[in-house]
Each structure stands twice: as C-alpha cells, then as structure tokens.
C-alpha cells in the first residue's frame, strides 16, 4: 500500500512538474501557449495558418464597412420615397396641364414641401410605381441571389460580394441623373436602376455573401453571436440611417446630395471588399468544391436526358432543392430540420420587414403620431435590438455554451475539435424564445389601448431580433462547408420572395380592415409568428449533412520504420505532426534513461518507472497541435469492423481515437472493468510506435475520467481509485495476442484486499482470451494450445445486449463530457 501511495504521489508530482520536462526552444514555448489557451480546436481556418494578419479572414473585416453600408441603405429610404413622390407628382400635373392648358398648377420643387401632391391620385400612382420597382428588384434578386451563393462556394465570397454592390452603384447613378435632370429624363428610367440592382442580387445577395463569409470565419460555438453582430449592423443602419440622412439633406439643402453619398458608400464598400478584405475560402477548398460540382454535373448528364436537364436548369425554383437533400450523408431528420428552419427564417424576415411600414401607418392612424414620434419609435426599437444582439446575446452564449464547454474540457482533459454538428440545445432554445417574444409582442399590439403599452410591446418584439441571427447560424451548421453558400443562396431566394409578396399581403389586410378592425394586422402577425413557433418544435438537435467522402487514413495500418525515415518536408501536415510527437516522446525518454552526463541512468522499466515515463511523455506530447486534430470520438467504430485479436467486438466499443479504442468486458472483475487497445493488433507493448503509445495512454486517461463519472459518487477521478494494468506477454497472463490495458474503477472494499485485483487478473477472472473463446468458439483448446481451463462459476459471461447497453451508456457520458 505504501508503495502504491508513493507511486501516486510521484505521478502527481510529475504532472505538476511537466513544464520543466518539455524540450527547450521556441517550439516548445509555442506549444505550451497553445495548450494553455484551453481553446477547442477548429480547423476552419487552418489553410490560413502562418499568413500575416492582413491576409487572414475574420468577420471583423466586414463589421466596419457593413455599418457604413447599412447606414447608407437606411439613410436613403425616406429621401428616395420623397423623390419618387415628387417626380410622380410632377409628371401627374404635367399630364393635367397638357389636358387643361388654361388651368394653372403650382410648380413641384424636388426636395421641398409640396402640399399640392398630397392627393389620392398621386399617392395611388406612387404606390403602383413603387410596387413595380419592388417586383423588378425582388424577382430578379430571387433568381440571382441563390446562383451567386452557389458560385461563391466554388470561387470565393469577396469578389461576388463586391459584384452585389455593382448594381447598387448603377442604381444610385441612374437615380442621380433622374433627380438632377427631371425635365429631360423621365422618372420611369428608375425602373432600369431597379433592374440593375436586381441583376446583381441587390441587398439579398450582399446579405447572403456576408453571412457565408461569417460562417467561414467563425467556429460553430460562436457563429450565432457573429451573425448577431451582422444583424446588429443592419438594425443600426435602420435606426440611425434615416436620422443622419434627414440631417444631411437639411444641412446641404439638396435632396440629390444624399444620393451622391450613398453611391460613394456603395463604391467604397465594393472596392474595400474586393481589394482589402481577405478571402475566407482558401484555394484548396474552392478547388475541392469545383471538383465536386463537376462530378455532380457529370452524374446528372449521365442519368438525365438532355431535355429533362434543360427543363430542370430552366426551373427558377431549382435552387430550393438544397433544402430537400437526398443521397449519401442525408436523412429524413435533416430534411425536416432544413425545411423547418427555412420556413421560420423566411417568416421572421418577411413578417418583420413587411409589417414595419404598416405599423408606422397604424401609429399615425390610432395614436396620431407625427413624423418625429414615428422616427423615435423606429429608432428606439432598432437600438434595443442592437443592444440585445451585441450586448446580451454574447453573454447568453458565454454562460450557455462557452463556460460549459470549458468545464467539459477541464473534466475530460481533451480540447474537442469544433465542427458543424447541427443545432445544439441552446440554439433551439434561443430560436423558440425569440419567436415567443414576437408572438407576445404582437398580441400586446392587439390589446394595447395606449401609446405606452404599444411601445412596451414593441420592446418585447425587439427580443425577436435573436431569431433571424440564430436561425441563419443554425442553418449553416447543418451542411458541409462547401454547401454553405448554396444553402444561404436558397434562403436568400425565399427572403427576396418574402420582400415581394409580404408587403402585398400585409398592406392588403390593413387596407381592408382599417377603420373597422385596425388591430387585424397584428392578429395576422401573431398568427404567423405562432405558426413559426410551432414549426420550431420539429427541429431536432445534432442533425447534419454528413460529408459523403470519408476522411482518408492518416497513416498506413502497419507503419514501418522506413516511413518515419522520410524527411519532414516530403510529408503532409498530419505526418509532420506525428514526427513532432515522436520527437517529443524520445526527448522525454532520453531525459529519463540518461543522466546529464550522457550515461545510462540504470533505471529499469518497472511499473512505476513506466508510469512516470508515460506521464512525462504525454505531458510533452499534449502540447503539440496534433492533439487538437486527433480528437477522440464516442462514435463507436465509425462504421468499420473492430477486432480485438481474432474476436470481432465492434458493438462493444464505446470510444475510438486515431490509434486506439476502448471496449466493455465480457466478464468484468467488477462493474466498470473495461479494456483499452491499439487499433493495430500489436502483440507486445514494445511493438507500438511512439505515436500509438501516446495515444493509447491518453485514451486510458480519458477512460478513467469517463468511469469516474459512471461509477464514483462524484465525477472527479479523485473521488475513487483505479487499477490500471498491462499483461505484456503470456507469462504475465496475457491470453489475447493483442495489447490491451485493463482499467478498473476501485472503491473501498470492492475486492477485499486492494491488491486482490492482481491475483484475479492472473487467474481465470483475468483470462480475457479464454472467456471470449468460450463465448464465441465453444470448447476451448486443450493444454498445449496455450490456454488452460480454470473453472469460475461465480462470474458468468454477459449477453451481447448487456454489453451493448453498457457501451451506449458510456457513449452518452462521453457526449456530456463534450467528446463527440
């Protein structure tokens, strides 16, 4: 017992002193800083490692320009409406004068108060013209936006994001010409500007590109927050843009001046995105996406007749097929989630944008608000949304996702690799809360009989701003990275259609019910958001489109020494990392076996020395970046057959790593007795490579943490003890010619004497090979075959169902620990 305690104390001391045993040099210091950051690995930007900061993509590159862009977008809305109203009015009275030459009409001056224009005929003509402009822009952008999104997966985001601004530049240029020369250029030429804007995707394509860029640059755990930042920029533009635009027109005394500013903002945004912002898709990922697209085209050409393919390509709704994917890696749950998320996101955006103008009209009709009151309400509502998205949402993400993930990393000792894994529970909860706030706020609008209650209801709906950011972040987590642009393009198509038909529906309902039941529009709004809330309950967590192409093997099944003799500059990155691990391992081995004078220390590889050696080696290996890439997984055998010696044990495996696996025992000494083995069927421990050895004992450590959660009173390993043993060779009791480590959770009095486990391992209780042979083969080989029969009536072999149930229980615990 004293010996065991001293061993534990020595191991603890080693763990505390590991930093002094690491190799010297800048490389080890970098590794230490990388490990100490305790940040989950994410390989989304690994292609940009080593590049200077100005060539590394980040969402922060977009935030500043996007704020300016949205301020210009919001600032031009009211001036453009006023300009169109004045131009239509000018044309109306010109037509009236041609019919009645003797009648005198007051002249219409652009950008000034023209009370003669406040007549139903001019309002009707203006509404019709705005509707036609909206149809041109909306329909064209609905067709173009998904194509731009799909193209961006293959050719990058930034160039196509810049292209989306070209239409805005041309649109504002035509607006300036019409406003500057109203007597020469007919106002209907503004339709050409709408066509140009729609042909390049308009605001919809720009939004799709910015969201795709954000998805490329941010890990799944932070994606919703950064999507929220982009939406906050939009709301900031809507909140302050109209005020800034109004003051600018008043300051310059010219309505046309604001359009020069907006055109300049479009042009500056286009140049900045094209020339300055780093591309978020590396050349490698672009080439992979192009190759996949080419293969898909070839498969379609082989399986479809030419006229059918032509008809499909001509179908404007073809981009929506991405919302109902079929083939390898897809599932019914994936299709249900994508459809539900697409409907919810379209409702959130369409209803919010379509109802905005009607809400402003309602406040003037019911509460008699003037222009200033309406502007204050819209600005306050947008400002609260900005605060929620940029202030409250990051706090929610920190306490709901970041801190629990950090706790799981501390408990498991493994920094899990972040990857798209569908929506998590927090995503779904935030989406439902946002939709619920929209429902409650809309009902508040219905029953509000004072302006104070109405404003309070509006502040409740401001919480719904989380819905769009969260919904779009969730959508990107459902598909492989090379399909994000295509998927968001399809969502953009739905957004564009919602912007076309939503105002028609909401304005029509308001026109039919005004004066009879003014609140009908809010009943419709609450019903629409209520339907979206119900649909959100069909979304299931952790569902995603699995990549149909399996990951290539990182190294040969049986690596040879010759493979390790290659120079590192001839190896791919994964093998370079393996060489770094070997270097770290051998450095620690040398420091243990040889003293400072270079002579052999004389230490033997006793169990305590081996434990010390393993701990020190792993302390060094853990500081290498390859650990983040060699993430452990609770996905069982990942679809392949796993063998323990000659026995197939796939269903008993509950944990796999790049080089090891853990399985439940057929006849455990006590509950929780499991085995950890290398994938390669090495007979002896000395046959393992340094990489395999490090991985094997790292897996043992993780298994200990798992068993502590499953079998101790508290989840910490310190709440109990473990017996960890390797029977290396037949004379030591090894009966399966495949290296395996026994991991046995221990509590006081579980076996009588604490050392009884070693007696049992040496007897029939530890005869793993004999038990498996009895279970699968029947009669065991007679003496001479290497296995001697020892009766043990107390321990009965378990059924396959019992072992599978235990394995599934351990997998669930691993998932709770953040080991996916």
Automatic annotation (TrEMBL):
Segments forming domain HIT: 640-753
Principal subcellular localization: membrane
GO terms for MF: hydrolase activity; nucleotide binding; transmembrane transporter activity
Localization (cell): Membrane
A GO term from the CC aspect: membrane
Topology term for the membrane: Multi-pass membrane protein
Xref: SUPFAM superfamilies: HIT-like (SSF54197), MFS general substrate transporter (SSF103473)
Motif Histidine triad motif boundaries: 738-742
Annotated transmembrane regions: 59-78, 129-148, 160-181, 187-208, 229-249, 255-277, 346-365, 377-400, 454-475, 487-514, 520-539
Keywords of the record: Glycoprotein, Hydrolase, Membrane, Nucleotide-binding, Transmembrane, Transmembrane helix
Gene3D superfamilies linked: HIT-like, MFS general substrate transporter like domains
Region ranges (Disordered): 777-804
Signal peptide location: none
Biased composition (Basic and acidic residues): 789-804
InterPro entries reported in the protein's UniProt record: Histidine_triad_CS, HIT-like, HIT-like_sf, MFS, MFS_trans_sf
Protein name: HIT domain-containing protein
Organism placement in taxonomy: Eukaryota, Fungi, Dikarya, Ascomycota, Pezizomycotina
């Amino acid at each position: 017992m004293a010996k065991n305690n001293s061993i534990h104390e020595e191991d603890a001391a080693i763990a505390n002193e590991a930093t002094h045993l690491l190799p010297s040099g800048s490389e080890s210091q970098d590794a230490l800083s990388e490990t100490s950051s305790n940040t989950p690995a994410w390989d989304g930007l690994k292609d940009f490692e080593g590049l200077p900061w100005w060539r590394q993509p980040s969402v922060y590159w977009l935030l500043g320009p996007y704020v300016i862009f949205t301020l210009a977008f919001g600032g031009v809305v009211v001036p453009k409406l006023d300009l169109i109203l004045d131009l239509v009015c000018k044309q109306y009275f010109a037509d009236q004068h041609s019919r009645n030459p003797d009648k005198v009409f007051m002249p219409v001056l652009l950008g000034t108060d023209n009370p003669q224009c406040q007549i139903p005929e001019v309002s009707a003509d203006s509404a019709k013209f705005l509707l036609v402009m909206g149809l041109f822009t909306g329909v064209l952008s609905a067709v173009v936006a998904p194509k731009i999104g799909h193209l961006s997966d293959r050719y990058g985001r930034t160039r196509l994001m810049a292209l989306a601004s070209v239409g805005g530049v041309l649109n504002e240029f035509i607006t300036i010409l019409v406003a500057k020369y109203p007597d020469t250029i007919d106002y209907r030429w503004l339709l050409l500007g709408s066509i140009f804007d729609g042909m390049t995707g308009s605001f919809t394509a720009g939004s799709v590109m910015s969201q795709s860029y954000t998805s490329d640059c941010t890990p799944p755990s932070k994606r919703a927050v950064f999507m929220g930042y982009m939406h906050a920029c939009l709301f900031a533009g809507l909140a302050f843009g109209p005020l800034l635009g109004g003051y600018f027109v008043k300051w310059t005394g010219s309505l046309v001046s604001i359009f020069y500013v907006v055109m300049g903002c479009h042009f500056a945004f286009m140049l900045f995105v094209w020339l300055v912002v780093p591309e978020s898709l590396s050349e490698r990922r672009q080439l992979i996406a192009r190759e996949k697209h080419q293969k898909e085209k070839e498969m379609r050409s082989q399986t479809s007749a030419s006229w059918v393919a032509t008809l499909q390509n001509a179908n404007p709704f073809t981009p929506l097929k991405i919302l109902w994917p079929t083939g390898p890696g897809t599932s019914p749950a994936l299709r249900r989630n994508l459809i539900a998320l697409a409907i919810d996101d379209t409702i959130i955006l369409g209803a919010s944008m379509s109802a905005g103008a009607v809400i402003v009209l309602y406040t003037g009709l019911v509460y008699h608000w003037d222009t200033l009151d309406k502007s204050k309400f819209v600005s306050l509502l947008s400002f609260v949304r900005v605060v929620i998205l940029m202030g409250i949402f990051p706090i929610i993400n920190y306490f709901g996702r970041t801190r629990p993930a950090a706790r799981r990393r501390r408990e498991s000792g493994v920094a899990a690799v972040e990857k798209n894994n569908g929506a998590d529970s927090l995503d779904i909860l935030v989406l439902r809360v946002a939709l619920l706030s929209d429902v409650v706020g809309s009902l508040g609008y219905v029953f509000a009989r004072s302006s104070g209650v109405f404003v309070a209801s509006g502040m409740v709906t401001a919480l719904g701003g989380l819905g769009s950011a969260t919904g779009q972040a969730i959508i990107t987590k459902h598909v492989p990275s090379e399909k994000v642009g295509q998927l968001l393009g399809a969502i953009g198509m739905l957004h564009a259609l919602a912007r076309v038909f939503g105002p028609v529906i909401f304005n029509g309902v308001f026109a039919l019910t005004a004066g009879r039941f003014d609140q009908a529009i809010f009943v419709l709004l609450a019903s629409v958001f209520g339907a979206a809330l119900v649909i959100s309950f069909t979304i299931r967590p952790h569902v995603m489109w699995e990549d149909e192409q399996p990951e290539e093997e990182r190294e040969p099944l049986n690596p040879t020494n010759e493979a390790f003799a290659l120079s590192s500059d001839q190896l791919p990155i994964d093998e370079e990392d393996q060489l770094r691990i070997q270097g770290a391992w051998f450095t620690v081995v040398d420091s243990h076996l040889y003293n400072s004078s270079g002579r052999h220390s004389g230490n033997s590889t006793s169990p305590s020395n081996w434990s010390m050696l393993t701990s020190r080696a792993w302390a060094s290996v853990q500081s290498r970046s390859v650990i983040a890439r060699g993430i452990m997984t609770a996905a069982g055998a990942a679809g392949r057959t796993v063998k323990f010696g000659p026995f197939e044990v796939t269903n008993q495996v509950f944990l796999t790593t790049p080089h090891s696996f853990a399985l439940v025992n057929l006849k455990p000494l006590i509950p929780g007795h499991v085995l950890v083995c290398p994938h390669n069927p090495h007979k002896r421990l000395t046959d393992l490579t340094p990489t395999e050895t490090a991985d094997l004992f790292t897996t043992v450590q993780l298994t200990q943490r798992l068993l502590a959660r499953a079998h101790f009173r508290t989840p910490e390993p310190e709440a109990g003890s473990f017996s960890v043993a390797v029977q290396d060779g037949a004379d030591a009791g090894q009966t399966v010619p495949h290296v395996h480590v026994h991991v046995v959770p221990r509590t006081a009095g579980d076996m009588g004497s604490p050392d009884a486990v070693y007696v049992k391992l040496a007897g029939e209780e530890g005869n793993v090979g004999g038990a498996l042979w009895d279970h699968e083969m029947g009669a065991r080989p007679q003496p001479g075959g290497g296995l001697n029969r020892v009766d043990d009536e107390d321990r009965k072999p378990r059924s396959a169902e019992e072992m599978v149930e235990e394995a599934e229980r351990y997998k669930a615990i691993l998932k709770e620990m953040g080991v996916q």
